[in-house]
Structure of Regulator:
Amino acid sequence: MLRIQFTAQDFARIRFAPRPAPLQELHAALTTAVTRRGGPLFAPWRVRVLRSLPAATDPLGDLVPAGRPPSFLDVLGDTMADGFEQIRATSPGLVRSELERVYGAVPAPLWIRGLRAGDETAWRTLHHAQQAAYETVLAPVWSVVQDLHREEFAHYALTVAEHGVAATLTGLAPGSRLHEGVWEWPGAAPDRDVRLDGRGLVLLPTFHHPAGPLLQDTPGRPAVLTYPAGPGLPPTAGRPAVPAETLAAVLGRTRLDALRLLAEPHTTTSLARALHVSNATASSHAAALRSAGMATTTRTGRSVTHQRTALGTLVTGV
């Protein structure tokens, strides 16, 4: 479980990153690729990414021999160049201590030892590896990531205005709770307790890491919580859409229309009204989509709300 402890000052310093951070999104994507997170919906993307990474990116693997990278890589630059400048400005003492933590008593590769000693050639190796990975993994879909971030930013702002900060935080992480100043994320690994102590918290959505939060907790900086957002599918620059006639032949025209409508949440009544069918028929279509894993149903009191899943989005292509 992840437990983040807030003070009153921290609640006043919660902010949402106004733009996506390329290096953070890159780290999230590479983590998903190498740890096989995301299940079958990410499988084709994972295979494509791992096959396409050039040899210039190999040094990045040296930075995570035990799965937890050095904290000085966690920066919020608006561009790759800005992010790398922030990394390069890390104090030599923090660079040394973090690389010692990552490697411990295990002999480090020569270029890692160069980083620890402040060698410029080693820092260029890191820069070139990050840039090569960005060009391969993120550059083709960066405009899509920017659009998704703007949507998430707007959703966050509206939710805070309507429901307040506490409800918004728990809404970002289904199953989490905020209790007596502690935000608890059950199931998040590894088990961690983080005290903000007035530093505040930056919320940063990621669209390449669907399996739980990533927390960057660097001394002297606001903590950064990178949380899963978006449709639950890796962003793509565009994929061939399945013809509507083909989908309608498999699902039926009305059920396909229902699946498309459920890109937004609908009650049974609103879905029936949009489809021009009875409530019973709309409920039947929602149940069929739910049993196929293409929709979810949430009950609140006497009302139920249906919404499309990532699989449903993948099927429709929109």
